Amino acid sequence: MVLNPVISKLSGKLVVLASASPRRLEILRNAGLRFEVVPSWFKETLDKGLFKAPHEYAVETAKQKALEVARRMPFKHLKTPDIVIGADTIVTVDGMILEKPVDKHDAYRMLSSLSGKEHSVFTGVAIVLCHEKENEEVDYQLIDFYEETKVKFADLSEDMLWEYINSGEPMDKAGGYGIQALGGMLVEYVHGDFLNVVGFPLNHFCKQLDLIYNHCASSSDQESASVHVSHNGTHTTSITTQPPPNLELKNQDLQQITALMDGFKASKALFTASELCVFDLLHSRPRLDAAQVAQEIKASVKGTECLLEACVSLGLLKSKERTLQKPVYENTDLAMRFLRSDAPFSLHGYIQHCNNTIWPLFSHLESAVREGTNQHEKAFGKISKDVFQDAYYNSQEVKLRFMNAMHSIAKVTGKAVATAFDLSRYKTACDLGGCTGAMAYEFTKAHPGLSVTVFDLPAVVEMSEHFHPLQKDNRVSFVAGDFFKDELPKADLYILARILHDWPDEKVHILLRKIADACTPGCGLLISEIFLDEDRGAPSRGLLQALSMSEGKQRSATEYSLLLKSHGFIAAHVRHTDNFLDAMLCIKV
Ligand SMILES: Cc1cn([C@H]2C[C@H](O)[C@@H](COP(=O)(O)OP(=O)(O)OP(=O)(O)O)O2)c(=O)[nH]c1=O
């Protein structure tokens, strides 16, 4: 017989049927399978409302039945099975799931709902492969599938119904009937596997064994197969491979979760070391021990020691052991390049902004999510209507800090954005919201024929002097104004770097309309943002940033290009720069 070699693959293995169903036992015995029966203690009480489709309920119940036995046996039976088989049969009609009737009235309710109609019988099957490890722990690999059979009942008279119910046959059977016995008389037709109705889809089970033992190589393979065959008049088969259900505790997974749980501790350790100028100190005076650092940063020795050790573990500092003396600390290359405040690519300003502005906002994230509003009031005691112009922003110190943050990001990302496209045809550019001019300087550096006007709020332009490079470039100039209200400087290339995500679509339209009005055909518009993947599944940097944004939102390149298109800008190129920001160059038509 064709299927016998599949069943014979199980010979010599301890196979367990986790079922008290005499029908399942008979079907599998008749197929020549040798197995032990250990009925499952799993109570069939899963909440049906939680499942999108009835078969998912049957499969989940089958899984739980099989797993309960697989987990119990090593302790209660003092032996570990090789394979445990569980199954669950349900009948579905008119969106209801019918299991075994609890009494005669329940059987009547079920059978009368089936009378004269076609219904489905689903059996979910779970095969648990148990792999005993050296330390006596057991790995469980789970393969599941389901089979659907359509059954049509004849019209049932009241007399027939009660006669059948009084025979006692319905009581231990899903839907209140047994097709293999008296219940067969109620059936007009069956589409699909008859044995599936009786409680076990033997054919599908053998195909699954064939997949496991003849096609998936070893049972420890990282892929499990699942075959779904449905019989809806037409016979459709689809084979899908799925990652194995994760039943074991994998260290890698645990590490991933732990890294997420501890992420905030790492951030805060970095912020604190940065705020206390540890990286600046160890740059000017490398190889200090914890007590010396503590003295310089005016902190406790104990706390400083913990902070320094944490920074070592995060790859921000290196410690050097000295015989019989306390270890000394110095910056790693990473800290030298990004964390000391005078480094060319220093992120010190951005880190301060994260610590002082983003961190308090994130500590109210739960409220932000519940209310869907920004949490400035809770975090800073002031309502923020417009991040850039409200009282909060107007504090000199906060404004400087904000500009510092933007400055450091622009310095780190500027070159990648400025060199993303060939801009040789443009002579004049206007960087809208260009803040300290850091981005503008990168553009003039990269494009010798280009002059850039930085356009920003008067208060920002006034303070931008603090940030001008020592070697001034007279191709960069500053004009004060509000890009939502005032006339924009004339240019043949407009730059919007990290601007549009701050605003909702309505405001973006206002700004784009103003830019479009200022443009002649052929003018360019370069936008630089984090572009979300089209399915919005990544990058998490953009998605996490959105959690503390006020009115704005993160968008994909397509979403941006649609906004731009409605103002006559055709997206010419998109560049994913691998840096903080991506870029898109659009042309006005
Ligand atoms: C529809 C139908 C179901 N049945 C049976 C098959 C199953 O044994 C039962 C559905 O109940 P299940 O909960 O699937 O199985 P069970 O309780 O009998 O056994 P265990 O939970 O221990 O595995 O209904 C028939 O025998 N004939 C039929 O025509």
TrEMBL record:
Co-factor(s): a divalent metal cation
Positions of the O-methyltransferase C-terminal domain: 362-569
PROSITE patterns in the record: SAM_OMT_II (PS51683)
InterPro entries xrefs: COMT-like, COMT_C, COMT_dimerisation, ITPase-like_fam, Maf-like, SAM-dependent_MTases_sf, WH-like_DNA-bd_sf
O-methyltransferase dimerisation domain boundaries: 260-341
Keyword terms of this UniProt record: Hydrolase, Methyltransferase, S-adenosyl-L-methionine, Transferase
GO biological process, any: methylation
Gene Ontology MF term list: nucleoside triphosphate diphosphatase activity; O-methyltransferase activity; protein dimerization activity
Quaternary context: Homodimer.
Protein name per Swiss-Prot or TrEMBL: Acetylserotonin O-methyltransferase-like
